[in-house]
Amino acid sequence: MSVRTSLTCLSLVLSVAIGWTISRSGTDADSPAKESRIVLGLSLGTLQQERWIRDQEQFRKRAAELGADVLVQSGNSDGQKQIQDIESLITRGVDVLVIVAFNPAALQKAVELAQKANVPVICYDRMIIDCDVDLYISFDNIRVGKLQASALVEGLGGRGRIVRVHGPKTDHTAQLFKQGQDQVLAPLIKSGAIEVVHEDYAESYRPEAAKRIVNAAITAQGRDLDAILAVNDGTAGGAVQALLDEGLAGEVYVTGQDADLAACQRIMRGSQTMTVYKPLPVLAIAAADAAFKLASGQPLIAPHAVSNGYKEVPSILEEVIAVNRDNLFETVVQDGFHREEDLR
Ligand code: BGC
Hints:
The relative contact order is 0.15. This protein has helices spanning 3-6, 50-66, 79-91, 108-116, 141-155, 172-191, 207-221, 233-245, 261-269, 280-295, 328-333, 340-343; strands at 10-15, 19-24, 39-44, 69-74, 96-100, 121-124, 135-139, 160-166, 194-201, 227-230, 253-254, 275-277, 300-302, 304-307, 312-318, 321-323. A hairpin with a 4-residue loop joins strand 14 and strand 15.
């Protein structure tokens, strides 16, 4: 029996104690394990932000340790190209697909093709919505938003005028960040302690888009701003640029996420206040391990479930850490994520 046929039956069993156990049939004695090397397909929507390069490197490294081959495609921030990339990976015979969606709302057709070819699909970091995916591996993204908003509120002493720079509406993950932030901010906005003087969505998380949003806020509201709740380090970079132009950098609280090198350097210099450190190797290793298990018919445990609009997707959600100047070295540097000499 071929691996393809032996992988046809997907069974999901909800176990109250441990979460979802995902097992593709094919592990029984009558379904021999695959003899040739396993090939993992990795489709990235973009390699433009620093983090995706790291994710990719760590994924490849882990796959090599497991003895699997990896085929990688990058969509160059073009949703259409990513669909073609995925089609090509399926045609080239990958055993499983790991997808970092550029536009998670537009990949249903590609996921359908994978399912027809019996290729399991893992959503990496970003959920693909409204279709039948097998697994979601990400960080606890609601917690990312909560950590950003809580740090900001604490930094402002509970009161202030803020600008919110959201991630794009097309990214389901950006909605989760906002959801987490809203949980912290809603009562304070209601009581009037926090005033959102301006907010907008940064297209494709572009720094230039964030800079435009902050420029617009300053034009409309003046320089009386206490904080910029920037969704990630890329947009924080754009926001800081706008603040620098106005001579406000260092006076306004700025959030971020990803612990990009440039962001950690800004934190050391004082123009950005915090970031959320997402230990990418943990995620990439978990994804490579899960992909390998699905491809080789081994059962896999996913402790969480997250809805993608089509179903409750078995999910693995990794922990994140809020980082500022006080704990930058004991987290990001100690983990080997950045070198101390690059931050001094
Ligand atoms: C990721 C963030 C990243 C952003 C832009 C999001 O989906 O979760 O870590 O900063 O995309 O690439």
